[in-house]
Amino acid sequence: MDLFDKISAKQGPLKDYAASSEGYYMFPKLEGEIGPRMTFQGKEVICWSVNNYLGIGNIPEVRANDTEVTKKWGLAYPMGSRMMSGHTSSHEELQSQLADFVGKEAAFLLNFGYQGILSIVQSLVDRHDVIVYDYESHACIVDGVNLHIGKKFTYKHNDIESLKKNLERAKRITDETGGGILVISEGVFGMRGDQGKLKEIVSLKKTYGFRLLVDDAHGFGVLGEKGQGAGFHQGIQDDIDVYFATFAKSFASIGAFVASTKDIILHLQYTMRSQIFAKSLPMPFVESALFRLNLIKTNPKFKEQLWKITNALQQGIKDVGFDIGNTNSCVTPVYIKGSIEDARIIVKELRDNHGIFTSMVVYPVIPKGMILLRLIPTAAHSMKEVEETLNAFKELKVFISELQAQSKLTETV
Ligand SMILES: Cc1ncc(COP(=O)(O)O)c(C=O)c1O
Q1: Disulfide: which of 99, 139, 228, 373 matches 232 by Cβ 3.0-4.6 Å?
Q2: pLDDT tens, residue by residue, 83-120
Q3: SS3 272
Q4: pTM
């Protein structure tokens, strides 16, 4: 069969909806400045859909610094991978400041978080080792694990008994191969918003002797006294052996970093294929990350405002009668039972009739029959925007009940 004919015939769960969804449900264009109010299809919407947690993406001092460093360096410098020709003192300076901030001996910058995690996982293990990782891990972790040629086991999401069972299995194998065990969790799970049970996970280290890698994309900048992440928040940062975070969320930029002991960072630096064989982070992103880091270290107001908005939004949505699951971070999921078709009706109602823009998550990202409206509060939102949104959710509740009565919706919460 011709390869392209086969591709055209087989659409897959999301592509089936491409023709009727593109531009509205999928690949929507949010226009205007990144912020709490943006433009969608020519109309202003309150935007709960961008991970600009600390709200700093567009504040005047950040914009001024972004412009200044771009003017100074352009986007080209440095060229090549870090190992060949893409290394600078600014990269080193940022690494050293990040390591210090997250309480680790050393850090290494990554050109993208996704590719970075992929290579971190691949570099940490060989065929004798076993990986045990959370079933609901982000795609970049899953893809990294898939590069591992040795054994790998998932444990049920945030389920410590299931983790123990799988550690037993892993240990039986490594006792034979002479390898080690790598456990991987997220600091904050980006869809459900629940923190990884890091404290409970590290308490198993004595028994099973594993090393722990934490992807803290959604905890960095948001949790911990100064925003140092989920490990600080849970008081176990020292027990995280390899810590990862991205600049694509609370820093509202691009790039990422990994932090660990000097030895491990040296190993990663010389083995991470996505970094050795790809261009280094350009200077404007490095220097703007230095600026952002300094800004959040010295300005607790961003994190305080973020949590004020988060608490008001989460409490309000619960009070209206929606289920937000067990989030204990800023990620705010609203769970509704229904089909993909139902999700489209609900999201359209929110966007067109209430001017509220949320992300919509459906199967295969979450189980069939569930709809997840994912709201990301930021420090840039105001209480007025929370209030307007809660009013919209009140009306949405009535809307869903009416649809349900006419049985246009499958069973809804
Ligand atoms: C948990 C998690 N890890 C890693 C990444 C990838 O980060 P980046 O956008 O820097 O590639 C994301 C982004 O969606 C994420 O949510």
Answers
A1: 228
A2: 999 999 999 999 999 999 999 999 999 999 999 999 99
A3: coil
A4: 0.96
